[in-house]
Design brief:
This protein has about 375 residues and is mainly alpha-helical. The protein folds into two domains: about 110 residues, no CATH class; about 230 residues, no CATH class. Helix content is about 70%, strand content about 0%. It has 13 helices and two strands; from the N terminus they run H-H-E-H-E-H-H-H-H-H-H-H-H-H-H. It has a two-stranded antiparallel ribbon with strand order 1-2. Helix 2 runs antiparallel to helix 4 and helix 4 runs antiparallel to helix 9. The two termini are about 35 Å apart. It comes from Aegilops tauschii subsp. strangulata (Goatgrass). It is found in: Membrane. Keywords: Membrane, Pathogenesis-related protein, Plant defense, Transmembrane, Transmembrane helix.
């Protein structure tokens, strides 16, 4: 039996469906609107900019959905030779069913639709699920990152308390020397004490293992804070470094949120290479884990390098305290942005893996897929 057109559908059904769709859409729009007002009221400019990028991504997904819906009748009537569909298949299929379905749409014998209506429907769902999961994943990441940084707040409070005590006592030693002596010497001793820690291979192994437990300890935070303050704010030792780190996280989040053009290119490349027998999805799952371990080890090794340079400065008898000097040269090719781009790709790749899983899960429901969904390797 043919599906009923809109003119043969009861008006109460049409009105009920429209009411639900419009209500959900308006509720989501109002939620984002009031969230933006709250961020502006709290002067969270970077988070507000990130929210605007999320809105742009949702708008792009809506435009893609509109294009697919508008062009689906044109796409399904494009016919190609049936032999062109024999290679680069993601799963095995029965060719006689393809020929039978193609005969319904294509007039020329031996031709099949360029993309079936069911396949177009599944692709539509995949793009929507991918975008939705990526938005949720980015929001979860910034929440967990903020929770991690909030754990450092009591360290910052303790440093300010020590500074106030030293001012009251009136120690003759300059305050910047006390900061370097107390905060940086502990880091140097932890990262460089012992001859075996000076070896490059050993330092990389330690950096790799440290990312799994207490990746940023109290001595790391205090040493990096004192180095930053002494370089940029030498006359303000009570500078709120924790607040600065929070704003830096928000600024970096604004740069990694959203799906850039090269990430969409990655999705297209995956769809192209997801061929039966290649197990592309299985091997691709190891890529974000590998990159995450490499980036984590690199960041830990940078802290170790800073400690080694500070220890080397003690060899100079003119230096009474360690001298930590943060520098971009410790990053790959002297560009910290490479690490940020890798983190952006890792976030997207994780969201892609989760989105792909939910997509296959959604297709398993017969109400969303006209036919039994194929198995994906």
């Amino acid at each position: 039996m043919d599906d009923a057109s809109l003119e043969h559908t009861p008006t109460w059904v049409v009105a009920a469906v429209c009411l639900v769709i419009v209500s959900v859409s308006l509720a989501a729009e109002r939620f984002l609107h009031y969230l933006g007002k709250a961020l502006k009221h709290k002067q969270q400019k970077t988070l507000y900019s990130a929210l605007q990028r999320l809105k742009e991504e949702l708008m792009l997904l809506g435009f893609i959905s509109f294009i697919l819906s508008l062009s689906q009748s044109f796409i399904v009537h494009i016919c190609i030779p049936e032999t062109a569909t024999h290679f680069m298949l993601p799963c095995k299929r029965e060719n006689h069913k393809v020929v039978e379905e193609g005969a319904i749409v294509c007039k020329k014998k031996g031709d099949v639709p360029f993309l079936s209506l069911e396949a177009l429907h599944q692709l539509h769902i995949f793009i929507f699920v991918l975008g939705l999961v990526h938005v949720v994943f980015c929001a979860t990441t910034i929440f967990l990152g903020g929770a991690q940084i909030r754990r450092w707040k009591h360290w910052e409070t303790g440093i300010h308390r020590d500074i106030q005590k030293k001012h009251i006592v009136g120690n003759a030693t300059p305050l910047h020397v006390l900061l370097r002596r107390n905060h940086q010497r502990e880091l140097v001793s932890e990262r460089t004490e012992g001859f075996w820690k000076q070896l490059a291979v050993v330092s990389w192994i330690i950096a790799f293992s440290k990312q799994f437990h207490d990746s940023v300890g109290k001595s790391d935070y205090e040493a990096l804070r004192s180095a930053f303050v002494l370089i940029h704010y030498p006359s303000h030792p009570n500078f709120d470094f924790h607040k600065y780190m929070t704003r830096a996280l928000e600024h970096d989040f604004k740069r990694v949120v959203g799906i850039s053009w090269y990430l969409w290119l990655f999705v297209i490349l995956f769809l192209l290479l997801n061929i039966n027998g290649w197990h592309t999805y299985f091997w691709l799952a190891f890529l974000p884990l590998f990159l995450l371990l490499v980036v984590g080890a690199k960041l830990q090794h940078i802290i170790t390098r800073l400690a080694q340079e500070a220890a080397a400065s003690l060899a100079d008898k003119t230096n009474q305290v360690p001298n930590i000097k943060p520098s971009k040269e410790h990053f790959w090719f002297g560009k910290p942005s490479i690490v940020l781009h890798l983190i952006h790709f890792i976030l997207f790749q994780n969201a892609f893996e989760i989105g792909f899983f939910f997509w296959v899960l959604v297709l398993s429901f017969p109400t969303l897929s006209p036919k039994a969904s194929p198995e994906y390797n």
